[in-house]
């Protein structure tokens, strides 16, 4: 199986970029019977069968007035408050380095058929935050290279350089050849910035995975580029996870997911060009649902309709589906939704800025309908994660964050938190960086789609008052 393939590539001298992903069978979402809402405690409203219910409490003015800040919410737990304040101090120190990283990613961004894609320099090998400094990894730290990055980021940017063996282009190109060739269930794959390797995780429940991993480890020393194979448990989307939902009635529960943030999108079309008020959330809830699917808030008010979404190979309304990755959806708001639109989170925080991407070792916060607050450290960027029902495919372009602090009992996102806001704080401002996709509670990691994967399709509300 893999042995012949491994021995063939042991002699490879150069690599060619390969970005194609395997096609997966589409999964059809089974609609819920929502005919007995009153029995489940939800107010009796006329909600059609194709409706999707979204929790909209954080955008309802009556609830905004009653919210507590995170500091107030944690005040009674001295340990949790101390950990929170420690992370705030760290975020403050990281702010300038993250700004520099965002400028760097913008320089690497190209627009192709309306989609934002990253095209790295041949010497670039990733970057990460070391306290208050952005460490830029290069395969050749020459005076010319240093001059390029200094000129791009500014002479006062908090950056330093580290030499490594392999560029991201080399890691990705060679690694994705293995991804295409491995005949075993793949859980996730992508480059690891700090170890300068390409990692592939196989499903530990599969006999084929164990066989491939054993064969791989025997021959890995012959590879011209470092590839590692691990065994792990498949992750779950933050939606309908087994064991999370409890109810007191025989009526089926409603699918719930979370608001990311409201904003605007630019539309082009006959008689419809211009800005539309829009809501950002995750996309996997909409698999099998058509454009125009109506969305309701938590009290049964219709607030808008599905304009476009993407989750793995599923997507609708996209200008260029093949090049736009991640897990996200945009809901065009009606007059009711526009009146409720806000940049305030249910935690009481107000989003006042947005940034397209965030580097390894940055610290971020999250909030969703079921888990009011959690936090983590970005561990990897631009990862590809294989999810089961309803996606049955690989969502690429995700960032991975590890639970902080580690250990049982630490808040972790659960089903229903999908689409929730991921942000950090710097200079007293709250900066949104993406929306939640899913996670692996046992492994202590969760995944989010950075705003860079949505690109020009969406601009978040980030007013100051």
Could you characterize what this model shows?
There is one protein chain. The N and C termini lie far apart (60 Å). Strands 1, 11, 12, 13, 14, 15, 16 and 24 form an eight-stranded mixed beta sheet that branches. A six-stranded antiparallel beta barrel has the order 18-19-20-23-22-21. The radius of gyration is 22 Å and the shape is globular. The longest helix is centred in the N-terminal third of the chain and has 31 residues, at 78-108. It has 465 residues and is α+β, with helices and mostly antiparallel strands. The chain has helices at 2-9, 61-64, 70-74, 78-108, 143-153, 168-181, 207-219, 335-340; strands spanning 52-53, 109-112, 115-118, 124-130, 133-138, 159-163, 186-192, 197-203, 227-232, 236-237, 261-267, 274-281, 294-296, 302-311, 314-316, 327-333, 351-354, 363-367, 374-387, 393-403, 421-426, 429-440, 445-450, 459-460. Helix 5 (143-153) links the parallel strand 5 (133-138) and strand 6 (159-163).
């Amino acid at each position: 199986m893999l042995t012949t393939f491994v021995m063939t590539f042991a002699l490879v001298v150069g690599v060619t970029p390969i970005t194609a992903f395997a096609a997966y069978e589409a999964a059809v979402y089974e609609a819920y019977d929502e005919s007995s809402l009153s029995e489940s405690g939800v107010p009796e409203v006329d909600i059609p069968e194709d409706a999707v219910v979204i929790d909209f409490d954080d955008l309802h003015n009556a609830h905004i007035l009653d919210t507590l800040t995170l500091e107030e919410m944690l005040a009674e737990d001295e340990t949790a408050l101390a950990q929170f304040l420690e992370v705030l101090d760290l975020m403050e120190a990281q702010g300038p380095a993250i700004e520099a990283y965002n400028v760097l990613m913008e320089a690497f961004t190209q627009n192709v058929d309306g989609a934002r894609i990253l095209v790295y320099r041949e010497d670039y090998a990733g970057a990460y935050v070391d306290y208050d400094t952005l460490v830029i990894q290069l395969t050749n730290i020459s005076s010319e290279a240093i001059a390029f990055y200094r000129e791009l980021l500014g002479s006062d940017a908090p950056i330093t350089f580290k030499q490594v063996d392999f560029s991201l282009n080399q890691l990705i190109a060679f690694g994705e050849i293995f991804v295409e060739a491995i005949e075993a269930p793949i859980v996730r794959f992508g480059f690891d910035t700090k170890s300068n390797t390409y990692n592939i995780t196989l499903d530990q429940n599969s006999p084929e995975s164990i066989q491939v991993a054993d064969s791989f480890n025997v021959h890995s020393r012959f590879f011209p580029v470092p590839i590692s194979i691990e065994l792990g448990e498949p992750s779950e989307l933050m939606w309908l996870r087994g064991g999370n939902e409890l109810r007191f009635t025989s009526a089926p529960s409603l699918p719930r997911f979370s608001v990311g943030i409201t904003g605007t999108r630019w539309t082009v079309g006959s008689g419809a060009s211009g800005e539309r008020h829009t809501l950002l959330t995750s996309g996997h809830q909409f698999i099998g649902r058509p454009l125009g699917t109506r969305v309701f808030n938590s009290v049964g008010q219709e607030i808008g309709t599905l304009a476009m979404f993407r989750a793995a190979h599923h997507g609708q309304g996209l200008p260029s589906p093949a090049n736009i990755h991640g897990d996200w959806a945009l809901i065009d708001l009606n007059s009711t939704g526009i009146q409720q639109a806000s940049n305030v989170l249910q935690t009481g925080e107000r989003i006042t800025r947005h940034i397209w991407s965030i580097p390894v070792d940055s610290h971020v916060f999250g909030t969703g309908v079921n888990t009011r607050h959690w936090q983590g450290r970005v561990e990897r960027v631009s990862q590809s994660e294989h999810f089961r029902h309803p996606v049955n495919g690989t969502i690429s372009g995700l960032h991975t964050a590890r639970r902080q602090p580690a250990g049982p009992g630490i808040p972790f996102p659960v089903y229903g938190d999908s689409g929730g806001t991921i942000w950090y704080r710097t200079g007293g401002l709250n900066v949104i960086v993406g929306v939640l996709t899913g996670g692996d509670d046992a492994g202590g990691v969760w995944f989010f789609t950075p705003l860079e994967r949505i690109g020009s399709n969406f601009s978040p509300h980030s007013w100051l008052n």
